[in-house]
């Protein structure tokens, strides 16, 4: 009596490799790069010495805009068509739009938050005519 042995292409290790590789690639891609893990400047808690009377671009607003806005509103980014953050002048040029989105409608930052203290200081900075220093 003859035993019939089926011929399979490749070794068992090749089969394991062929099936597990796509799964591993999928898992690595899924967890390796998310927006939350992207390198963005983290805002420092507003210094207690910064008040509504002395808030400026250099002591508060620059860091706030870099940490909360620049990831989406920088040159070539997803929201750059609506407004592009580059410097103080770019904020001055879009003051009304920014005030409305952040302080009135509170729709920005999209997917992020601004503390009550940051909102208070930002509103004061706008009211003080956005001083640089």
TrEMBL record:
Membrane spanning stretches: 12-31
Gene3D superfamilies: Cytochrome c-like domain (1.10.760.10)
Keywords: Membrane, Transmembrane, Transmembrane helix
Name the record gives this protein: C-type cytochrome
